[in-house]
Task: inverse folding
């Protein structure tokens, strides 16, 4: 479970770094991101769903430990 949290953290950092680089270097990142532009919506969506699932699992496991 901890590894999944680190994987989510790395995913979010990668997403924000990609967006920041796209604003700093728009032409260079346009060349890199053009082949995967149609799939770029899937990355934040999967990160959001994964974060929600991780939060629900953490709440469940902390609730089970209290008993």
Result:
């Amino acid at each position: 479970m901890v590894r999944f949290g680190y994987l989510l953290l790395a995913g979010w950092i990668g997403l924000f770094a990609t967006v920041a680089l796209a604003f700093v270097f728009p032409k260079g990142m346009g060349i890199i991101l053009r082949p995967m532009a149609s799939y770029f919506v899937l990355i934040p969506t999967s990160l959001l769903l994964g974060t929600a699932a991780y939060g629900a699992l953490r709440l469940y496991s902390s609730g089970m430990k209290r008993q």
Notes: Residues 42-66 form the longest helix (25 residues). The chain has one domain: 2-66.
